[in-house]
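Readers outside the structure-tokenisation community will struggle with the description of the input data as it stands. For illustration, here is how one protein appears when written out as sequence plus structure tokens:
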Amino acid sequence: MKNKIINVGIIGGSLNNQWASQTHIPALKNNPFYNITAIGTSNIVTAEKSAKILNAPHAFTNYKELAQSKDVDLVVVSIKVPHHYDAVLAVLEENKHIYCEWPLAIHTHQAEKMAQLAEERHIHHAIGLQGRQSPEVNYVKQAIHQGDIGKVISCTMQVATQGKGGITDEKGRYLLDEDNGATLLSINGGHSLDVLCYILGDFKELSATMNVHYTEAFVQETGQSIEKNTADQILIQGTLVNDTSASVHIQGGVYPAFQLEIRGKKGAFRLTQKNSYGHVQFGNLIIEKMIHPNNLFNAKDILMEEVKISEQNNDAISYVNQAYTMLAKDIVESSKHIPDFKDAVKLHRLLDVVRKSAKTGKRIFIKQP
């Protein structure tokens, strides 16, 4: 890659912003291709304080002004989902490159418009589906492609989180309103389904059930009880384009865990997560590989081992850092490798199919591109 520094402005870049301060900011600070030049928050005091600590010369409360800054080449949007649309459009108006967190928008129509405008502007656009940067995910994807476990027959994925159930905090209460577009299905489900489809291919048909077991949630800081209208139990059964049978269970308000098991004619892979919060994109994944030679299925004949692929960090910061390195390469070399707004639209549409099936009780066939 040519020696080029990309100046970055972060909308939602306050050091009080949990996700930005724990992933985007440390990833960008340690990445040699970037320089943080602007911080945008809703409060000028926190904006200036964060900018000072990060040695960024500019602080803003208006994201339009941040996008207009001549010292910003790339804008990162790391704010609550309901505000993504307006912030992204402001960036696109200035023809600046953009990295937006997932979900891209509160609904698919917004996401489609954002993707269309980004393409028309001929800028580089990235979506925060950083689970694809996992070394473990990519190892399993490549090993399956190489036939390590033979033809894949089925996959089973379990995604569980203690959040989005009957207890919340003030920061998370907006996740319990369907209209905000940041639900158990869209966040935990979206990231996990993206990883599943990235490894094995898209769904060609599915049926789904979505249930609400918690209709209220207790807010820890205030003791207030608030209404909750989002599903906390989501079941998806379907078939992928390669005829793999798929079963997915996404649940909130329960003991957290992540597991993806992929079974083939010659063996299986199992991806699990240490200290899981039900977010595959947080990293800390473990690979187990099982081989049954000569199609023998006796327990004593099955070879099972944990696959160690590297000593490098496999946490959320490293995933985001790898995503930024890929984006920098795309910008400098005019290539397209990073997951972008078109990938986001595709995932939004898949989630729409899940909702439609759950609402109608019907099995839905998905038109392939």
About this structure: The two ends are 33 Å apart (CA to CA). The chain has two domains: 6-123, 132-307+348-364.
